[in-house]
Amino acid sequence: MNLLKEKSTDEMWNEIKSADDYESFAANNTETFTSADISECLNALLKEKGIPLKEAVKRSGLDRSYAYHIFSGKKIPSRDKLIAIAFGMKLDLDETQMLLKRTRNRPLYPKDERDSVIIYALLNGQRLDITNERLYERDFDLIQ
Q: pTM for the complete prediction?
């Protein structure tokens, strides 16, 4: 499963519109359909990016044992916890959006001011602590 090079939604739209039958469309897109298996998705990203779990957890700012429970599938993270993990894995905006969508979470939305702060941070490679400072300055909930 290569999550970083998956088909775009537009590609999926084009394929389903031109499909002769659903079965062939589904067979060609088994790896692209969203998955509720957050642990599988996160671990595949770690592998694809070549990031040690310990490093990603440390940079995420999450409680270590809670983060390990997320990666092992014992805990289901909130959207914000996934965003913290995205910062921990140094995902860019597209990768973070993909992670949120693949795990059936709402993607970041630029018309939401809090989300726009996060989007800006991801686009500019900022660390989570800097992002949280900017959120705090604007009186938004921190990513934690």
A: 0.79
